Hints:
alpha+beta; six-stranded mixed beta sheet; disordered C terminus; four-stranded mixed beta sheet; disordered N terminus; 5 helices
Amino acid sequence: MSAASVERPHGDRPLIAEANRLMDRLPGYRVEIIGGQILVSPPPDGPHARALTKLMRPFLAAGLDDGPTEVLQGIGLWLPTGTEDYAIPDLAVVDADIDDHLVENNCYDPVAFRLVLEVTSENWKSDLKTKVAAYAGARIPVYLIVDRKHQRLHVLTDPVGGEYAGHRVHSPGEKVTLPASLGAEVTLDVAEVLAAGRRKQAADRD
């Protein structure tokens, strides 16, 4: 997904109103506000969706979608980085009482989030830079990035200020066990996750 920044429009229209107007005009697009700018991302491609499906399975198998937590796709996260800032991570592990933490505009207080996850596309710089600062600023305990461009899995932990004190980069061939703060043991096969996110060649489809 490529992302384009849209500056605040002239006049008194709040950024959120403009973001919602864009969502009405562009069904299926993801519209976020980070650092006072609107980010517009086209719908994900097939490999992006496939990687997300593959990633959900170990979280569900660990029981994180039943009990004190839930595993949700595309839920809005209210950010403290600006008066109208919010993000929509690809996947999140949240507390089961998430409905009690609604802020506004279908976005929820970051206190209810245990992990956020992004699968990169053409807008990979946003996931690897802009959102790192945003999620750290919101004190999200774990930020997981499936970096399809560089074929790496990033696990960021221990948010301090606007950055993560812990940042581990994993390559195919490794298996990664995520922090216990999620509430269950989740181990990911890096090669399997990255393979799901690659476009299939014609020969593979025959």
